[in-house]
Each structure stands twice: as C-alpha cells, then as structure tokens.
Amino acid sequence: MAHEVRGVIAPGKNEPVRVETILVPDPGPGEALVRVRTCGVCHTDLHYRQGGINDEFPFLLGHEAAGVVESVGEGVTDVEPGDFVVLNWRAVCGQCRACLRGRPQYCFATHNAKQPMTLTDGTPLSPALGIGAFAELTLVASGQCTKVDPEASPAAAGLLGCGVMAGIGAALNTGQVGRGDSVAVIGCGGVGGAAIMGARLAGAAKVIAVDIDDRKLSIAEGLGATHTVRSGENDPVAAIRELTGGFGADVVIEAVGRPETYEQAFYARDLAGTVVLVGVPTPEMRIDLPLLDVFGRGGALKSSWYGDCLPSRDFPMLIDLYRQGRLDLDAFVTETIALDQVEQAFDRMHEGDVLRSVVVL
Ligand code: APR
Ligand code: ZN
Ligand code: ZN
C-alpha cells in the first residue's frame, strides 16, 4: 500500500518548487519508511532545482533530515519502528574493496531505497541525494538511518545529515586537527561555521575565521573563532601568517569552493600544514599553482567529502556532545519554516544572514 503525503517537488529546470501530493510505498526488503520530523534547506537542494546536478526531474527535494522510523521491510534488523534517526545519503555495502579495507566512507557500491516514490499519476520522483525528505514520509534504505538519542532536538539532529557534518568532519576526520593546533577556516557559512566548531572541539588553540561578510565573521566568533579576518579588505594569507607567528596555520579549511580561496588556503598553511577542501567547486574551475610551490611545501592537500564521516560512528557521538552542551548545533538553526516555504528559504540563502532554514513537519 502506498501512503499519500505532501512533498516538495522541483518540477523542472529553474522552476519554483511546489508542494504536491506524492505516493510513498511501504518498505520492501532492506528499506525503511521514515516519518520526517525536520529537514534543513541546503545549497544542494537549490542546485537540484536549478538543474545543476542532473536532469532527472521531477525531484523530491530535502536531504538533511531527522525523523522516526514508521515501519521497516523484510530483513531489516538495524532499526525498528519508533527509532529516532538521522538520515544519511547512502547506505554502504560492507563488501567492496573500500569497505573491506575499513574505509566505508569511500564505499563504491552504496545504495538507496529500490522502490520509487511517485506523483499521484505514477511519475517516479528522483529523491535529492537518495533521500527526499521535504515530505511527511520518505522511503530510504535502512542503512541510511542512524539511530541517535531521542531526546535531541530534531532540528539540530537533522543538520548532521549534510552541511554541519561536512564542516565538523572536515576538521575532525579529514584535517585531523589536534590539541594546540592553529586552524584557519576560509568561508564561514554553514559548512565553515561547523568547521570552526569542529576545530574547537578538537582542542585547536587558534581558530581564525576568514570571510568577506562581516555578519558571517560575527557569527563565526559566536561559534568559537578566536580571530577574524575580513577578506577583501585584508590579504587573508598575510593575515593568517601574521596570526601564526609568520608560519601559516597547521590546518587550513577551504569552505567556499572557489579557485582563489583554494589558492589562499594553499599559501596560508604552515610548511608542513594540511589544506582541506570541503567547499564544492564547479566543473569548469581550475587552479594554476607553480609546481615548485607544491614541491617546496610539505604537509598534505586533502579533500573532504561529507566530512569523511561514518554516520554510525559520528552521528551518535556528535549528538551526545550536543546533549552535554559541548556542541551547539542549535546555533545553526537560523529559522524554522513550513513545508510550503522552501522557495522563500532559497531566496534567503542569497541574503547571507542564514546558516540554515529548517523545515519542521
Ligand atoms: N573569501 C572568503 N569567504 C568567502 C568568499 C571569499 N572570496 N566568497 C564567499 N565567501 C563566504 C560567504 O560570505 C559565505 O559566508 O563563504 C561563505 C559560504 O557560505 P554559504 O554560502 O552559506 O555556503 P555553505 O552552506 O557554508 O557551503 C559552503 O560547501 O556545500 C558546499 O556548495 C557549498 O561550495 C559551498 C560550500
Ligand atoms: Zn562498500
Ligand atoms: Zn546538503
């Protein structure tokens, strides 16, 4: 039996999103039906709506979600009805080369639910990042559900499903920030802001926030930055070096996704420092660095995909820290909105004063 619920659809390239009735099937083998409590509005949802990811319209948007398992299909043992879960994009296979080598974050045989959710006329929907959680119910692979402390605020918990996890993980997992390190974060939106928190959590002594927008810098201070640099007015490379005794930062996290900011990150790191690229570039972007400068500096150039997270390891741990008051996830929830306000949330993204708008169902 399929469930008739409301969901936010992106009908075609650059067309505004709208709320429609959708059909969500009961879970089949390996699947879980989840009653969505909250879902954050992410740039990637806007990219889907703009046709920037692929042309498989119509999309069912939303992928930063927390909810309660409604029912599970045959063979599902990892979650059960009533569990409070945070959703992730992809269930890992456990059997591929990456999984067997103990690095399931790089699994190349990930999967999502097999059965499609559809419009009432039977048109299949493409769920954003294999989730589609701007909907009252969504169908996912059970491995996309991670059980966390049910006492956590759903709005805060759901944020771990994407941008906030990407930022925290860029610092903790990819950058391997250590106690006493100096860390610079270039770009202090939701992802960079979370990287600042991750750096603090790891015990960084200096956390330097760099942005072109003063409002983001004051938010960054609230999130734990010890120093701020207004880029544009100041040369961020010179400023970061000056704040680190002339050496550059141990870890520089690029959270914008542009060639010029990547170049700044490259030169703002200590000779043996690490650069982490977590901002998402577009296909036409290029960098042009003297190879001698790559050769002449040690350290590491890394990229961080989804914060190199392992949902089953990282989500419950971060929720515990949140519950103990050591990780202020609520700081990312700028506003809570209804299902029919996603298009307005996209508009607000450009105004620059929002870390996250979160749909509450
Ligand atoms: N130097 C420093 N900061 C910059 C620059 C620049 N040249 N250009 C933009 N910024 C800042 C913006 O002012 C903003 O605060 O980068 C921040 C980007 O934040 P958001 O737009 O909120 O994006 P966010 O959700 O944090 O994602 C960052 O990761 O997921 C990807 O597509 C996303 O590439 C984007 C990046
Ligand atoms: Zn695998
Ligand atoms: Zn996202």
Termini separation comes to 22 Å
The domain tally reads 2
Per the CATH scheme, the topology name of the largest domain is Quinone Oxidoreductase, Chain A, domain 1
Please tell me the overall pLDDT.
96
Radius of gyration computed on alpha carbons: 20 Å
Number of helices: 11
Series of H and E elements:
EEEHEEEHEEEEHHEHEHEHEHEHEHEHE
Mass-distribution shape: globular
CATH class value of the largest domain: Alpha Beta
Structural class: alpha/beta
| Full CATH superfamily name of the largest domain | Medium-chain alcohol dehydrogenases, catalytic domain
| Structure summary, number of beta strands | 18
Q: Which runs of at least 5 residues are low in confidence (pLDDT < 50)? A: none
- Specify the oligomeric state: single chain
The share of residues in helices is 25-40%
Largest sheet: 7 strands, mixed
> What is the CATH architecture annotation of the largest domain?
Alpha-Beta Complex
Bound molecules: adenosine-5-diphosphoribose, zinc ion
Structural write-up:
By secondary structure, this protein is α/β, with parallel strands linked by helices. It folds into two domains: 2-161 and 328-360, Medium-chain alcohol dehydrogenases, catalytic domain (Quinone Oxidoreductase, Chain A, domain 1, Alpha-Beta Complex), CATH 3.90.180; 167-304, NAD(P)-binding Rossmann-like Domain (Rossmann fold), CATH 3.40.50.720. The chain has helices spanning 43-49, 97-100, 154-158, 163-174, 190-201, 214-223, 236-243, 259-268, 291-296, 311-323, 342-349; strands spanning 2-10, 18-25, 31-40, 59-60, 64-72, 84-87, 118-119, 126-127, 137-141, 145-147, 182-186, 206-211, 227-230, 249-254, 269-277, 300-303, 333-337, 356-360. The strands form three sheets. Strands 3, 5, 6, 9, 10, 17 and 18 form a seven-stranded mixed sheet that branches. A six-stranded parallel sheet has the order 13-12-11-14-15-16, sandwiched between helices. A five-stranded mixed sheet has the order 7-2-1-4-8, with no helix packed on it. Helix 11 links the parallel strand 17 and strand 18. Helix 4 runs parallel beside helix 5 and helix 7 packs parallel to helix 8. The chain is globular, with a radius of gyration of 20 Å. The two termini are 22 Å apart. The model has no long low-confidence stretch (mean pLDDT 96). The protein binds adenosine-5-diphosphoribose and zinc ion (2 copies). One zinc ion binds at residues 42, 44, 63-64, 162-163. GO terms for molecular function: mycothiol-dependent formaldehyde dehydrogenase activity; zinc ion binding. Its EC number is 1.1.1.306.
